[in-house]
Amino acid sequence: EPGRPGRGGYTLQEALDWNPKAYTKFKKFMHHLIEENLDTTKCASSQNHALLKTVRDKAVDAFPDLENYSGYWPLNDMIMMRLKYTSGRARQKESKLGAGKTKTKIKK
Fold it and tell me: Where does the source fall among the domains of life (predicted)?
């Protein structure tokens, strides 16, 4: 699984073996695309497929080298990792807000 090197997974940056500047540029571009086009409170499997395709198409236009990877796996891994992170943060925020609400009895 991408992003979990300590648990049998791998880091995307090491797997791609791109120079650090190119990887950082790709990562920032993808984060921006994801924020602009997808619902960051949901995981990748819960996203609108047409919007996922839009994100993929825009990414391949900006980074044509992605066509060299079978099934655009780096792109799919980046989308999955980012949405896993953002949806998890949204759940944490939601549970903290929920925990802060307490019912108080109104005295008559």
Answer: Eukaryota
- In angstroms, the CA 59 to CA 15 distance is 18
pLDDT (tens digit per residue) in 40-89: 999 999 999 999 999 999 999 999 999 999 999 999 999 999 999 999 88
Dihedral pair phi/psi, residue 107, rounded to 5°: -80, 135
Closest by alpha carbon to 80, among 46, 50, 44, 52?
A: 44
| Structure tokens given for 62 | 């900006």
Which amino acid makes up residue 53?
K
Domains of the chain: which residue ranges? 5-100
C-alpha torsion sign, points 71, 77, 80, 86: negative
List residues bridging with 10 in a β-sheet.
2
Contact at 8 Å (CB) between 43 and 91?
no
Determine phi and psi for 90, rounding to 5 degrees: -65, -40
Write the single-letter amino acid at 47. Answer: Q
